[in-house]
Amino acid sequence: MEDDGVMPKALPTSRFAPSTTAVHADDDLNNVEDVAPPLHVSTTFRYAKNPDDLVPAAAADTSNTEAHVYSRLTAPNATRLETLLSSLVNAPCLTYSSGLAALHAAYVLLNPKRVSIGGGYHGSHGVLGIHQRLCGTSLLPLDCPASDLHPGDIVHLETPLNPTGEAYNLVEYAEKAHSRGAVLLVDATFGPPGLQDPFKWGADIVMHSGTKYIGGHSDMLCGILATNRSGWLARLKEDREFLGSVMGSMEGWLGVRSVRTLDLRVKRQSENASKLIKWLDDCKKIDSGDEEAELVKAVVQRIQHASLQHDDMHWLKKQMPNGFGPVFVIWLQEAWMARRLPSLLSLFHHATSLGGVEGLIEWRAMSDAAVDPRLVRVSVGVEDWEDLKADFIRAFQGLAKERDTSPAS
Q1: Which end of the chain is less crowded, N or C, counting CB atoms within 10 A of the terminal residue's CB?
Q2: Residue 249, strand partner residues
Q3: pTM, entire model
Q4: Are 304 and 166 in contact (CB under 8 A)?
Q5: SS3 for 154?
Q6: DSSP 8-class letter at 116
Q7: Contact assessment for residue 157 and residue 126, using Cβ atoms and an 8 Å cutoff
């Protein structure tokens, strides 16, 4: 990682495995006897009592993690979280009040004339809409020819993609962007540390909605930007002071708690998702005679997820060697089935968002006006996958019964 002079020294990422790094990368910040880091709620911090120790702002060392002044600049809990994350994402990083706040900060920093972007999270398109209105930013398709890009433009790549969980080849888009002097911005929310390292494949700046897998317990908002590009992090930190999009101390404290188990959680969730998807996909391929398969085929039209991109495995297994992500999409045979399915499940909460330890399912039409009404997004939790499978079977049986007993049938 490049030292930008604005981050505390993080544990060398090559020294330990990610699960160890997540527990010990912030050891240098242990300045109290508490094993569990304390929560600091103060918004302002005393200057040195001795006048001779006072350092004016113009001469201040921005990498001094003990020199907190005002929490809109830095605070102990957020600084500790940034130290941990910098080791895990393999680049210096900053935290923000939400994922969209982080994305907005990236666009303020880079101020592109053109952005090449595909589908994905509708909130990201909302942020870009603001920049179109304020700055006249033009949008290009994600698959535009390289000749349409110019120096300073952005290729905005979300992988895996929201809501489908499908993946894109980072190397391909990095080469395309860099051949024209453009920047590759990667939204890696669906591929958190432990599953994917976009910097290894050419990303210039990486964004995470830390609300999802970094937080992992559906109880905090957080955004993250990371970059190895010289000077960018210092400018981002200056901008954040005036954008006012710093995360709160409570969220910083919750984030530290969550990151400790990040590696354990995302691998279990991804493994669970892959098993559920394989079961569903296998059922769709069975010709006849299997009662469970017939039930699935009667209800499920198709499934989307990176693990089903069989023709892409030559690059995908390298890009995501530890699993293909815990989010996938089920297309139901009819829209009313998608609307009813979440209410028939017992182990999945019907709610938006994703990444928590608990299973979530969303009839996506509830939060995305542009989505097909037959689609449900599934965020798999850490529960036993066989229990989750049994829950789906019961729910599918309920849908089949409703279909067979409705007057229209």
Answers
A1: C
A2: none
A3: 0.93
A4: yes
A5: strand
A6: E
A7: no
**Dihedral of CA 263/273/323/164: which sign?**
negative
E-strand ranges in 10-123 read: 93-96, 114-117
String of DSSP letters for 192-221: -TTT--GGGGT-SEEEEETTTTTT-SS---
The tokens of 130 are what?
A: 């603001």
Tens-level pLDDT at each residue, the chain (409 residues): 555 555 555 555 557 898 999 899 998 888 888 899 999 999 999 998 999 989 888 887 766 666 898 999 999 999 999 999 999 999 999 999 999 999 999 999 999 999 999 999 999 999 999 999 999 999 999 999 999 999 999 999 999 999 999 999 999 999 999 999 999 999 999 999 999 999 999 999 999 999 999 999 999 999 999 999 999 999 999 999 999 999 999 999 999 999 999 999 999 999 999 999 999 999 999 887 799 999 999 999 999 999 999 999 999 999 999 999 999 999 999 999 999 999 999 999 999 999 999 999 999 999 998 899 999 999 999 999 999 999 999 999 999 999 988 765 5
